[in-house]
Amino acid sequence: MTREKDSxxxxxxxxxxxxxxxxxxxxxxxxxxxxxxxxQPSVIVDPLLQxxxxxxxxxxxxxxxxxxxxxxxxxxxxxxxxDRFGRNxxxxxxxxxxxxxxxxxxxxxxxxxxxxxxxxxxxxLYEVRKEKDVVFLGKxxxxxxRLKQEKDSGFFPEWLIRSNEITNRAANEWSDQTIPLDxxxxxxxxxxxxxxxxxxxxxxxxxxxxxLKIPSTLRYEGLYGNRLGIYGENRDSIYRIVRFVEFLSNxxxxxxxxWEEAFLLQVSGKKKRTLPKIILSIGSSFDKVRPLRxxxxxxxxxxxxxxxxxxxxxxxxxxxxxxxxxxxxxxIEVDDIGNRIEMEMKEYxxxxxxxxxxxxxxxxxxxKKKADEYWNTIRNSFVVKD
Length: 386
Description:
alpha+beta; 40% helix
């Protein structure tokens, strides 16, 4: 009887111990699960797909967010634009302009309607140490301002002060060069919209003190080559000639076909013949001594500089007539393949010691109507400052 009691007691004790072990295991397992859940996000499994969807959604959200930032950044970047000459500049989202000196850049006179952009071009030219180009452009920008102010006395833009500062700084830095700055920055000009876009160029010379208006179809040779033009100095005087050129279409002489022209080019060994052109020449002189000339013989001075002597005149069949202080000259030119071209030239001379000036416009006779229009504009607008 006693043995049975002991067996029941032992069985009861083992059962209680088993229950305690199970309780402790469950307790510690719950605590570990609870702690793990505090450190790791809950994972919710889609009952249909049997895969976690929250991490995938968060990853996609992250990618979408970065794509949005990329697109927003592109929209906020600088935009490339072109001025009326086809040159490039950048405009930032804040409205700042940065001019580009790239492969499409070339030198030009400033345009009055875009003088603010030209002022930005000036800044970049100064950064790359183009002092003579800075002064040339800066004087043109200031001319644009003065032309505008003549019609609107209250006009004073913000870009003018900065432009003048840079121009003066560049002029001072050029002072140690051997070539006088006036020769590489003069004449300067400004395109103005009058009847149509950029139809006239106002041209000024600071050293010789003149101004005139030129049709913009006549292009300044100094923009593409030697800006000095024809320049000389001797013990008596200083002189200079600058030229503006318009190349005409390659029209054929009367009675000549394109096949005949091609044959003549082949025989002469040339690929193409020189195009006919209209040429405007502006001459200026300054006497360093007593007056050497007068209004009646001043043209002789320029004839000698152009090697237009008696022998050359006979060779060209050159004839000159004077009418109302204007000379009209005629001669015959022979082009590269032997074609004879009848030419005319209008000439105007002014001598007011110690300074003197001449204007000449040469052209093929068949362009007489256009040349007359050009000459009226040039001649009527030419003024000399005291």
